[in-house]
Amino acid sequence: MTAPTVEAAIHDLMDLAWNLVYDLLAERGLLGDGFDVGEYTGIHSWVEDLTRYTIVHSRSVAVLFVDTRPVDATMFHHDLLGADDPKRYFALQ
Description:
Layout: H1 4-16, H2 18-27, E1 42-48, E2 51-57, E3 61-66, E4 69-75, H3 79-82
Antiparallel strand pairs: 1-2, 2-3, 3-4
């Protein structure tokens, strides 16, 4: 279980752009059976210059947001969160 503020941040991002997130996951073949926003329990966020990057992830999928817009999705790798440049795991659009 995540802390209430982390959970709220995840839900805010996912709810704000749910249709776009769903389309990204469908395009990448990442929907799977029983897909549920509640499965997304992790968040990693940082700022570069004037841009905020946020990765919201479940056990199997990670979604990259630039500011509040979802731009890519990929299979979740634990190495992604410890990487010097986590964006490299995604194909930025």
